[in-house]
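User: Could you go from structure to sequence for me? I need the amino acid at each position, not a summary. Structure tokens:
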């Protein structure tokens, strides 16, 4: 695999008018063009993989959050061509001359979006009032605390309308005091019931003792 050309854009548009060239004709750009910091060609034209490295790219104007890297590649057949790998250090101007040899099979490959910075980081939180998360297309997604709802701007949070019970949910811990209160009332009723039953049994025993004592006195009186 040969890398013919690489460039970076701030959007997913292949031919975005705002772009930065990284490689041209398989080699780093010459001094006539802006240099890319720490650009290295690690692997190019030597196997079925190609690899480059660089530390940064820059664009004029705007606050760039993501970049897309695109490379025009050629599939070079080593069985037909022994010159698939291009040396960029053997010429005063290495971008002169063509990197392409023999049969040409060109295709543009595009990387996934590369995040330049965390859009939910910092005090701004992506513009969200409460919570911020990142979507698959690298956009901020705002959510709110319980009891709040997202505003029409999809960023601000406001208290839910409490006048309508529809859709409202009460947290489970709100029921704990009620459950404990009912449980204590049941225990109190059971205790009172048992105490009264016990006292009623004592009264009956006392009445029987008194009646037995009265019958004994009456029998003595009759005798």
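Assistant: Here is the amino acid at each position, in order:
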């Amino acid at each position: 695999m040969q890398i013919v050309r690489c460039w970076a854009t701030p959007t997913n548009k292949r031919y975005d008018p705002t772009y930065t060239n990284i490689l041209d004709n398989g080699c780093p750009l010459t001094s006539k063009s802006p240099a890319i910091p720490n650009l290295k060609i690690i692997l190019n034209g030597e196997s079925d993989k190609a690899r480059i490295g660089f530390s940064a790219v820059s664009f004029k104007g705007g606050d760039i959050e993501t970049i897309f890297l695109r490379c025009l590649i050629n599939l070079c057949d080593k069985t037909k061509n022994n010159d698939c790998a291009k040396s960029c250090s053997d010429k005063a101007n290495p971008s002169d001359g063509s990197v392409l040899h023999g049969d040409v099979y060109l295709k543009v490959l595009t990387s996934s979006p590369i995040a330049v910075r965390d859009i939910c980081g910092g005090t701004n939180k992506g513009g969200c009032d409460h919570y911020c998360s990142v979507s698959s297309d690298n956009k901020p997604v705002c959510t709110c605390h319980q009891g709040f709802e997202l505003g029409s701007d999809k960023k601000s949070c406001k208290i839910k309308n409490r006048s309508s019970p529809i859709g409202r949910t009460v947290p489970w811990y709100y029921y704990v005091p009620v459950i404990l209160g009912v449980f204590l009332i049941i225990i109190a009723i059971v205790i009172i019931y048992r105490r009264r039953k016990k006292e009623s049994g004592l009264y009956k025993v006392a009445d029987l003792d008194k009646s037995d004592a009265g019958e004994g006195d009456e029998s003595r009186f009759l005798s």
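One structural detail worth keeping in mind: Confidence is low (pLDDT under 50) at residues 90-102.
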